[in-house]
Amino acid sequence: MDSIGNLAIAPIRSWDAVICTSRAVRSTYETVLEAWEDYLRERLGAQHLPRPQLPIIPLGVDTRLITPATKDSRERWRRKLAIPGEAFVVLWVGRFNHAAKTHPIPTYLILEQLAQQIQQPVVYLQAGWFPNDATREGFIKAAQQWAPSVRHLFVNGRDPECRREIWHAADVFCSLSDNIQEMFGLTPIEAMAAGLPVVVSDWNGYRDTVRHGIDGFLIPTAMPEGGLGPDLAQGTCAGTISQGHYWAVTAQTVAVDCQAATQALARLARSPGLRGEQSLAGRRHVESNYDWGVVISQFMDLLTDLAKRRESAITNNPRLVQPPAQPAPLCADPYHVFASYPTAPISENTRLKVSQQWMSAAAAQSDRLQAFQNDCLHSFANGWRLGHQETLQLLFLITREQPIKIEKAAQRLGITSDQCQYRLLTATICWLLKLGILEVNESLAVLP
Predict the structure, then answer these.
(1) Do residue 124 and residue 79 come from a single domain?
(2) How big, in percent rounded to 5, are the helix, strand and coil portions of the chain?
(3) Both 174 and 263 in a single domain?
(4) Residue 166: which H helix or E strand, with range?
């Protein structure tokens, strides 16, 4: 935030540029700059606040090195990992970090549902590396607990051969990113280059690179609307909350549509023809738009444009904006700053219902909820949510009156929108959506 805000007081000229890798990144830059510029005008009477150019240029891959599987390479990798030929293999690649990358439990729950729906073994192949032994133990325990019907394979993503060819063992790639630390996401590009259909969250840079229904599927996401995260922002600004904790707690309130993800994976599992179509489309898409040769040409075009601006010494006038005044523009509510990331916000008018899967486990609901809350991959954020009994009360209320607006549920529970308790309620609802316990009554449509 500081580095973005410093651009407003740096010796910026119209021939300067900050390259954004996605529309979401540029929107975040603009949101922070607008608030900081407003502060500088009010505080210092600043009139001339030039901005750098904010062009969008994606990251790239070398399509000569990442290639689709051949029959031989597919069989070789499956033999190496002891994966039977009839198994449906879902691949994830990246750092194993629930706090700063992708939380694994929603994916485990989705794959468990998938295993119950399709008539073939499901293997979840996870290629990456852990930051520490505690995280490794947490992932492995969660995998066994929440997806017992799925075979889980963890492989070393730092091994050069694995990093280059692990794609060949899989049928589809799945990455349900839910973290504001993520800005672009390179692995879906690599997966498409390797000829894999992709199932990814409709989140930040992913929505720029994956074409819904063509290269794979974008899964709707949601998080609280702006105004519900000042405690996180202020704690981070004051130094009482670490950057990592800021990311991790915010991610706990980012929900990915579990049902839509399950349906997408099931559809691909049942249709080798569709997988083939999306494989070809994704490979062509990467070759045309994300090969380094294509990306570097965009850098060269930008350099040429900036050189012309510098030569003619044209300076831009500052853009006059009047966003809502914020006491600390560079320490803003994450749900406001990153509002462009999800498919849709969760607001007081959002209508909720309880998932059928949760309804069918009525006898064990309390124990299952307690198990989620006690899981070390969730428990660190329990202080940012309602307690166990309050959450059960919320679920009972929604079950009885569904579909019900969040505003009405809050009223029933005696919570007003100006209370800290309301933020805990919203965070709890988003966490329950994240786990597929709750569902949004309306469709979270994926925009083209």
Answers:
(1) yes
(2) 50, 15, 35
(3) yes
(4) none
Q: Which residues pair with 90 in a beta bridge?
A: 124, 172
The string of pLDDT tens digits covering residues 358-413 is 888 777 889 999 999 999 999 999 999 999 999 999 999 999 999 999 999 999 99
Q: How is 431-445 classified by DSSP, letter by letter? A: HHHHTTSEEESS--P
CA–CA–CA angle 316, 23, 62 (5° rounding): 110
| Neighbouring C-beta atoms of residue 232, cutoff 10 Å | 23
**Confidence at residue 329, expressed as pLDDT on a 0 to 100 scale:** 67
User: Pairing relation of β-strands 438-440 and 351-354?
Assistant: antiparallel
Q: How far from 439 is each of 110, 399, 429, CA to CA, in Å?
A: 14, 11, 10
Handedness of CA 419, 421, 427, 433 (dihedral sign): negative
Q: Give every residue of the chain whose pLDDT is below 70, as ranges.
A: 313-329, 443-448
User: Do 213 and 284 belong to one domain?
Assistant: yes
- How far apart are the C-alpha atoms of 98 and 376, rounded to whole Å? 10
Structure tokens at 44: 């210092």
DSSP label of 54 = -
CB 152 within 8 A of CB 112: no
Phi, psi (5° rounding) for residue 223?
A: -150, 170
Report pLDDT for 417. 76
Can you give the CATH number for the domain in which 283 is found? 3.40.50.2000
Domain hosting residue 43, numbered range: 2-58+294-312
Q: Within a domain: residue 234?
A: no
Cβ–Cβ < 8 Å for 221, 254: yes
Residue that the structure tokens 């031989």 belong to: 72
Tell me the backbone φ, ψ of residue 275, rounded to 5 degrees.
-60, -40
Q: What is the pTM of this model?
A: 0.85
Among candidate residues 379, 106, 360, the one with its CA nearest the CA of residue 254: 106
What are the backbone angles phi and psi of residue 198, rounded to the nearest 5°? -125, 140
Provide the 8-state DSSP code for 175: E
Query: What does the block give as tokens for 436?
Result: 């597929």
How many Cβ atoms are within 10 Å of 288's Cβ, its own excluded?
9
Whole-angstrom Cα distance, residue 432 to residue 196?
30
Instruction: Please work out, in degrees rounded to the nearest 5, the angle formed at the alpha carbon of residue 207 by the alpha carbons of 202 and 210.
Output: 110
pLDDT digits over 332-363, tens only?
888 988 999 999 899 999 999 999 888 887 77
Helical pair 243-251 and 230-238, crossing angle rounded to 10 deg: 170
The single residue listed with the structure tokens 């990798």 is 77
Query: What whole-number distance in Å separates Cα of residue 219 and Cα of residue 343?
Result: 9
Same domain? For 285 and 430 the reply is no
Q: How many domains does the chain have?
A: 3
